[in-house]
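Let's practice the habit of predicting before peeking. Look at the sequence and jot down your guess about where helices and strands might fall. Then scroll down.
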Amino acid sequence: MSVSDPVADMLTKIRNAALAKFEKVDIPTSKLKLEIVKILKNEGYVKNFKKVTEGNITFIRIFLKYNEKSMPIIQGLEKISTPGRRVYAGYKRMPRVYNGFGTLIVSTSEGVTTGRKALERKVGGELICSVW
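Done guessing? Here is the structure:
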């Protein structure tokens, strides 16, 4: 079955795996998904990730992170742009997630980055998702 929005599918898999308290989740790979997962790792939302190849299928294995009470670090993942409705923002109008406690992931002309770094570099772009 073909997925019309692979990024939204990835975010849903991560959200469901975290709520079910899975140790890891496997996601089909793409360059955009890999960049999003790198940001999640750098911002401290996931423990680690690695690219795994089994046979001729390559996927990203994401190891989820939990606090000392076994609650997932990722409390929420929300897709902002959809295939039917793209959302763009300039650096002056970059939204904040949970008053700065969350992370906004943006696709800019300089690559996929966080909203904070896009603001520092003074570049806007497509708002992909928000994480808190």
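How did you do? The helical segments are 6-19, 31-42, 115-121.
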